[in-house]
Design a protein that fits this description.
The structure holds 2 protein chains of 2 kinds. Chain A is built from 3 helices and 2 strands. The two termini of chain A are 18 Å apart. The model of chain A has no long low-confidence stretch (mean pLDDT 96). By secondary structure, chain B is α+β, with helices and mostly antiparallel strands. Chain B contains 4 helices and 9 strands. Chain B has an 8-stranded antiparallel sheet, covered by helices on one side. In chain B, a hairpin with a 6-residue loop joins β6 and β7. In chain B, α1 crosses α3. The chains are: A mainly alpha, B alpha+beta. The interface between A and B is large, with 44 and 53 residues.
Chain lengths: 69, 143
Amino acid sequence: MNLFRSEEHIERWLGGREPGATITAGTMCELAHAWWDTRLAPDWRPRTRDENQAILTRLGLTGDFWALL
Amino acid sequence: MNERELEFRNLVYGRFVELGRVPRFEELGFDPEEGKELLRSLHDAHALVLERDTTEIRMLNPFSAVPSAYRVAAGGRTWFANCAWDAFGVCAALAVDGHVSAACADCAEPIEIDVRGGAPEPDEHFVHILVSAAHWWDDIVFT
């Protein structure tokens, strides 16, 4: 999951490869905070697949590409 | 994940953040043989990532235990992160503002982003996720 200066840079980097998903750094930062904010909590427990999927959905990250196993 | 694995996992993460590096078994108060077994179980449960075929920790997501292209200044230290997601995740996990230093994966131009109140400044960059979510753990290092 790489950072790029612009969408044009992503296209050039892909070089004809099948693209995955592109999101803004703002959305990624929001996702990171929703995903990792309890990582160091002393009572941390693993989330379920459905809980993780709900985080993605809440941020509008839906569809086949974002479907967790 | 059983209670012993959870206890060990939380201890490893806590000491990692305290020390700024992977703790040794004796610093955790665990017998090395039991510790290695617990590390393997946690790796299998995707609670951390070991170097291939070893018990050396590579990732305590979102932190990287090895140098990477994503550096994060946060909480009075500089950390390595595994990817763009994890770079922001370091600030999230530590619950602090921070600064991400990376480079455009295409042109290698430096990218410097402040993270303030859970948002990037400037918010003008993009992240590309090549691997679909169902396959993230097929090869988490590549992902």
